[in-house]
Amino acid sequence: MSMGSACMMVLLAMASLAGCAGTTHTDVLQVRIPVPVACQEPVPERPSMPTEALRPGASLDDFARAAMAEIERREGYEGRLAAALEACRMPFVAVPGAAPSPAPRPDA
Q1: In angstroms, what CA-CA distances link 9 with 1, 17, 20, 87?
Q2: Whole-model pTM?
Q3: Is 73 within the bounds of a domain?
Q4: For the segment 6-20, what is each residue's pLDDT rounded down to a tens digit?
């Protein structure tokens, strides 16, 4: 073994050991990516409609009263459905270490 190759071996060994001596530095990078979340809002129960309770052969006045009452009942049901849909469409804000909660509405 010549002096040049011995010197080369020592340099190679030192370079190898120097590579192991360094500390690794890792940065934690938080990336905010929207993730779909299942909606947990319950579906409002459909109310019974007054025209469904009418017996065959009901008078025109009875039918008109039932139809007017049904319009009011359907509007209330539609409002509950719209509120449930809006609750499902609100974005969630994640707080580290806590369960996700709906984000505050911008118009509130």
Answers
A1: 10, 12, 17, 70
A2: 0.51
A3: yes
A4: 888 888 888 777 666
